[in-house]
Amino acid sequence: MTDTLPIRPTSKETHRQPSLLFPAELTAIELADRPPDAFADLNLDQIVASLTAKREPYDLAPYLWTPLPTVAAVRYRQAVFDDLADDQLRHGLEEFAEAMRVMRRWQSAAEKTSYRRYGQGCRLEAIHRYLTALASLRELLQQVGPRSNALKSIMEYLDEYVASERFVELGKDNRRLQNELASLHYAVRIRGPKVTVTSERSDQDFSKVVTATFERFQQSDVDSHLIKLGPPSFTHVDEQILGCLAKLNADLFGRLAEHCRRHATFIDAVISRFDRELQVCLGYLAITDPLRAAGLRFALPEFTDPPALDVRSGFDLALGLNIDPGRLVCNDATLEGDERALVLSGPNQGGKTTFARMVGQVFYLAGLGFPVPASHARLHLMDRIFTHFERVEDRDRDTEGGKLEDDVIRIRDILQQSTGRSVLVINEMFSSTTIDDAQYLGGAVLAKIGRSDTITVYVTFVEELASAPGAVSMVSRTLPEDPAVRTFHVDRMPPQGTAHALALAAKHRLTRAEIVRRLSRPAQPEPSPRQESTAPSRGAEA
């Protein structure tokens, strides 16, 4: 789509009714100009990259960097996804989006060409495709009858817009000029370097002659030989021929030039914004379609006022976009009553960090009004999401305490900013210190989290943290018969302590009893080299 006109409003763009993504009370919202700090840690940047691929001219990332501030705004957007569950509506909107892309290619050709009359022809075609796309969109919405307030408002606006004097005049003038240009007949004679254009009309239909000539090569009937074409290539010779034709039809080409001048910017601002915002919804559905086809489920979350976490059969969407969906393992994440923290422990490479990312993604995507990767989700609307992962800091600190001090400063900053509406995902914090220090510091963090009501997922090697007030223990499981095999299921259960290490030791016969037994065996005497050399082999005897 590099040949389309850019349609990137600035990040300070405001949204006024009607809008597909924002309700009326958010008329002054500003789109973020950078992703939230937690984006990379939760692999949300990978989701955005997948969604925006091949949709670059629409500049969709700012929408995905801007979570909605109210539950009402989220439900406004959720209703759009409910409408898009209708296959007829979704297919029709995809056709509208494609028609607008083709229209923009013609408009782009009109803007970029140095050939004036060719540009006028491209603009005439662009206006025609714009009018056709809007007529089809209006007919689609009238047939389907969307239920969301967003699409209803678009339909009402469209009814008023196509009935306006400006739109009606644009359509009449454009059709009249197209018909007049299509009725022109002229002849081009080429003799050496000389090209002559006359207004002669031939009685012979050369298209019939060509068809009859090649009829014998036809092998079978097909529905259509039509292919999608964009603006044709053009040369200076073509422009000179058009110049000659314009001299022969000065009045017609004069009215064409005036028409293009008057309607240089014919695309309505509301329609242009709708076209852009529609790409957010269609793009998300496009990247999740393969996962749905593989049997994975998506749900529109329910929202509660007190902080809540209840996710069933959730999965890491970013991971699902990069591996075979059949390999994904779904997990539940639930906090009840006064519980505020999920403390994850278990063997390395067991799916703990993936589970933590899943929870963070579900909260964030819910805040965008998107279906979340789960069969069911009941959440509160977060105000911010924080992460504490091991990474290179993007700001310099004058510290001498190394990684431990850096961990303490980072989590202090997070706890100072977080509220009872926030979500915090911690991955292996304080791993650089002793287990006693990590237990003490982690306990202090969980105590602070408990007082602030911040929903937290804490991946740790310190299993004792699971006993903190408001904390729930979750463990990544292995196969009972083979502890070396991870199942990637994370279940609510007490910490396993040394159970995993003991099971591995038993499998490889490295328990204390096995080692003591082997060491206590009497040593077997080894045969001397002389004895070995004097003993004939069977081969020697033979």
Automatic annotation (TrEMBL):
Residues 339-518 form the DNA mismatch repair proteins mutS family domain. One of its GO terms (cellular component) is cytosol. GO terms for molecular function: ATP binding; ATP-dependent DNA damage sensor activity; mismatched DNA binding. SMART domains: MUTSac. InterPro entries: DNA_mismatch_repair_MutS_C, MutS, P-loop_NTPase. Pfam families: MutS_V. SUPFAM superfamilies: P-loop containing nucleoside triphosphate hydrolases. Residues 517-542 are annotated as: Disordered. It comes from the Bacteria. Keywords: ATP-binding, DNA-binding, Nucleotide-binding. The keyword ATP-binding applies. One of its GO terms (biological process) is mismatch repair. This is DNA mismatch repair protein MutS.
